[in-house]
């Protein structure tokens, strides 16, 4: 008879079997955890996809509205003939809608710059009152169309900030437009400012639809929208208030939102630090006249409509203008025309704007022209590349007439 004994070898086998069973149990538990995590990730992914699709749908809607108005304006100009009133009304409407599109695209780019840490403030000493007045003037068309009343209460003393006036104006413009959009027709909007110790407090109060206690803590989150029929009717991407918060905090301040609930209106409170006292405030610069001495300007852009419309505007301002449709033609035109200013697009077929700028810089000029990149690309990396290619300025499309006027005023006298 064979007797089975619990030898050392058998004991080792049993230990290995027990260890294997434990590994299998742990693996099964881990697999269960991974399955749950995968399901959670799947649910999160689906939620992100739905949020993306919703945002793209809203973005499409917001872009199509001004595009439709601009298309209508073009037809109105064709039908108006010699009626100066109709032409003026169509032109004013198209300017408003174009500004709306510029603000929309600018807000989207600002969100991207903030997310990547590439947003930089261009600080200067600025009087709060001038920034507030600029914002109020920019928001006035929307406020008047909605039938609202706007009152501004500013202290008589100057409140000097160390701030980026463009970003700060966006803060108050977004708050005023927000108040106008979410107040029933005939509402009242009040903007007030006062000194508070070493800082200033700006309040924007409206008599609008208000914010519920559920939504109030999230009102400054990016892409957050209060989901109401009223909100959907008014439109918006849900990024305006998030930019307000980011811009205020970049200036060393903070912003708060207050509301007692639906139907009670809202109050937004912006707190900003005052600038350190200066020995003397510089005198404000005098804006150059749009019709100064005529200068020679070369416009290089493969978009024919963009080039010819810009050239016509510059000619109406009293300047001598040539156009070129690509980089190679721009280099040839520069050698022949000898411009004092070159406004050049970057993304052109064949010889692009960067290479054209390098070739123009290589020419033996008596007095080299001022080279300005005129492009839709406006990130810091884009500005660095244009500087390395030899450009003196980097202008982002669409460029405002006053920007061109100031740029031309910088040209040296012949």
UniProtKB/TrEMBL annotation:
Domain Histidine kinase, residue spans: 58-276
SMART domains in the record: HATPase_c, HisKA, REC
Protein name from the UniProt record: histidine kinase
Top-level taxon of origin: Bacteria
Enzyme nomenclature, EC number: 2.7.13.3
Source species taxonomy: Bacteria, Pseudomonadati, Planctomycetota, Planctomycetia, Gemmatales
SUPFAM superfamilies the UniProt entry points to: ATPase domain of HSP90 chaperone/DNA topoisomerase II/histidine kinase, CheY-like, Homodimeric domain of signal transducing histidine kinase
Keywords attached to this entry: Phosphoprotein
Enzyme class per UniProt: transferase
Span of domain Response regulatory: 296-412
Record flagged with keyword Phosphoprotein: yes
Gene3D superfamilies recorded: 1.10.287.130, 3.40.50.2300, Histidine kinase-like ATPase, C-terminal domain
Species of provenance: Gemmata palustris
Enzymatic reactions: ATP + protein L-histidine = ADP + protein N-phospho-L-histidine
Modified-residue entries (4-aspartylphosphate), positions: 345
């Amino acid at each position: 008879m064979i007797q089975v004994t619990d030898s050392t070898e058998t004991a080792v086998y049993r230990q290995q079997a027990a260890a294997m069973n434990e590994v299998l149990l742990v693996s099964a538990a881990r697999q269960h955890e991974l399955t749950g995590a995968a399901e959670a990730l799947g649910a999160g992914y689906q939620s992100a996809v739905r949020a993306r699709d919703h945002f793209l749908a809203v973005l499409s809607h917001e872009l199509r509205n001004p595009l439709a108005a601009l298309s209508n304006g073009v037809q109105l100009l064709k039908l108006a003939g010699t009626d100066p009133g109709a032409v003026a009304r169509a032109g004013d409407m198209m300017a408003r809608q174009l500004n709306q599109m510029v603000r929309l695209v600018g807000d989207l780019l600002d969100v991207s710059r903030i997310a990547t840490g590439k947003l930089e403030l261009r600080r200067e000493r600025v009087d709060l009152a001038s920034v507030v007045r600029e914002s109020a003037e920019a928001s006035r068309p929307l406020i008047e169309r909605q039938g609202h009343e706007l009152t501004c209460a500013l202290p008589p003393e100057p409140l000097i900030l160390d701030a980026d006036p463009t970003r700060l104006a966006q803060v108050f413009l977004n708050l005023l437009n927000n108040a106008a959009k979410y107040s029933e027709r005939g509402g009242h909007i009040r903007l007030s400012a006062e000194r508070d110790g070493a800082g200033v407090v700006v309040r924007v109060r409206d008599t609008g639809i208000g914010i519920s206690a559920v939504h109030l803590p999230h009102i400054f989150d990016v892409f957050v929208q209060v989901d109401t029929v009223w909100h959907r009717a008014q439109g918006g991407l849900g990024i305006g208030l998030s930019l307000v918060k980011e811009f205020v905090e970049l200036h060393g301040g903070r912003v708060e939102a207050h509301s007692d609930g639906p139907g009670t209106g809202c109050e937004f409170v912006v707190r900003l630090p005052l600038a350190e006292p200066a020995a003397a405030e510089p005198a404000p610069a005098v804006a150059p006249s749009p019709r100064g001495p005529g200068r020679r300007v070369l416009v290089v852009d493969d978009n024919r409509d963009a080039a010819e419309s810009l050239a016509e505007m510059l000619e109406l301002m009293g300047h001598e203008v040539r156009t070129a449709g690509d980089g190679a033609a721009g280099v040839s035109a520069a050698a022949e025309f000898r411009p004092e200013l070159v406004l050049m697009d970057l993304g052109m077929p064949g010889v692009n704007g960067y290479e054209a700028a390098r070739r123009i810089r290589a020419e033996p000029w008596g007095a080299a022209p001022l080279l300005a990149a005129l492009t839709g690309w406006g990130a810091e990396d884009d500005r660095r590349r244009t500087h390395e290619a030899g450009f003196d300025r980097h202008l982002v499309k669409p460029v405002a007439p006053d920007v061109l006027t100031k740029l031309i005023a910088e040209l040296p006298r012949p």
